[in-house]
Design a protein that fits this description.
It contains 3 helices and 24 strands. The protein is mainly beta.
Length: 391
């Protein structure tokens, strides 16, 4: 197992520019798989690759935690994303389990876990750990993921209930150990705002990027030791899945994403400008665990960057927060949420192709004309310096 340093991440993105067009043009076949049997296990090793296209599962009825790619080739990837923010909005933690060949040019293989944390005082911790084996098993009402290196005793695991009500993580490895748990209070949904399961839903966020949100929001408890320092909090968080046939540098120009909770309200919003120059959006609001607003690519959502706060990213985008306003024109209801960055949780190293910042935030909002609730959330902003050609 080898940690990926900032220098090696920068080296990776430089080397990606040198990949031949033949390597990056392996567009997978996209189709729907039938439902799996009751108990399944999907296992791969770090250097296990197939040559040629793989199949991406885009069925909205496929269980959210199932592996979505039929195999690992040179370009397709998927991951399990878990994030959390402390109850005062000043600290945060994100853990991601990857099956992703994009760093294989560094010789580490396709399986890794990233752990990024920020303490309330702004101190940050970030590591990326590579492992030799990965398995995802579903049986008896739970999906279990295990990323490990048996010979070295490193184990990183997650569990998500079949009902998508709970999720938990256990990490045991160099510089990282501890547990994380999430209990949902918002229903699982797709980018178009439909609640799972729905045969009419779509998991396509934008061209060549797929997303489901198993737990849009829930209560979180964390208890970790990171590089010998205790790191624990209670707060809120969520769990998402993403998968695609190409890495971000080929399919996105820029994006903003936010998950916030204010009182009884949950807001998740993603505004994504694709490689085709078009902008795609997904918006979801729940109140006391019931969806009250959901739309995709609608004109009934306004996103406005704000300035003048205390915290902004290190790149050209110096916005310190944003405002999201939503309107259900069928009933006249409106919602407004204001988000302000409290701390930078993680940033891509300077010189990378992606000018990426992740924040923990304070927030306020609710239904217009009603009580304004205070809350917290997490957000991302990213701008690609160059959108790489696919062929």
């Amino acid at each position: 197992m080898s940690p990926l340093t900032a220098t090696s991440r920068t080296d990776f993105l430089f080397k990606m520019r040198l990949l031949p067009p033949a390597l990056i043009s392996l567009l997978p076949v996209i189709s729907a798989f039938p439902s799996p049997p009751q108990c399944t296990t999907n296992s791969v090793t770090a250097y296990e690759n197939t040559t040629g296209p793989v199949t991406l599962n885009t069925s909205p009825l496929d269980p959210y935690e199932n592996i979505k790619n039929s195999a690992i080739n040179e370009t397709a990837w998927e991951y399990y994303y878990f994030d959390s923010i402390s109850s005062d909005g000043s600290a945060g933690l994100a853990i991601v389990f990857f099956r992703d060949p994009s760093l294989s040019v560094l010789g580490y293989g396709n399986l890794r876990i990233s752990v990024d944390a920020v303490w309330s005082n702004g101190t940050k911790f970030s590591t990326m750990l590579f492992v030799g084996e990965s398995s995802v098993s579903t049986c008896s009402g739970v999906t279990k993921g295990l990323w490990n290196t048996t010979s070295e005793g490193f184990e990183f695991s997650f569990e998500v209930s079949e009902t998508l009500k709970t999720a938990s993580i256990s990490l045991s490895g160099p510089q990282v150990s501890g547990t994380w748990s999430l209990s949902s209070f918002a229903p699982p949904r797709t980018p178009d705002g439909l609640i799972y399961p729905s045969p009419k839903a779509s998991v396509e966020l934008a061209p060549l990027i797929y997303w489901n949100e198993a737990i849009p929001a829930g209560n979180v408890q964390t208890s970790f030791t990171l590089a010998g320092t205790p790191f624990s909090f209670t707060g809120i968080g969520g769990h998402d899945r993403n998968w695609a046939p190409y890495i971000w540098d080929y399919i996105a120009e820029h994006w903003y994403w936010v998950r916030i909770i204010t009182g009884p309200y949950t807001l998740v919003y993603w505004i994504w400008t694709s490689y085709d120059g078009q902008t795609y959006t997904s918006a979801f609001v729940s109140e006391n665990g019931v969806e009250v607003f959901g739309t995709q690519n609608g004109e009934d959502v306004t996103f406005t960057l704000t300035y003048g706060g205390k915290v902004h990213g290190s790149f050209k985008d110096e916005s310190t927060g944003f405002v999201v306003e939503l309107e259900d024109k069928s009933c006249g209801k409106k919602w407004k949420f204001e988000i302000e960055h409290a701390n930078i949780a993680f940033e891509a190293p300077a010189g990378n192709n992606d000018a990426y910042s992740r924040f923990v935030n304070t927030a306020s909002g609710g239904e217009v004309g009603g009580k304004v609730w205070n809350g917290v959330g997490g957000s991302e902003q990213n701008v690609m310096q160059e959108v790489y050609p696919m062929a």
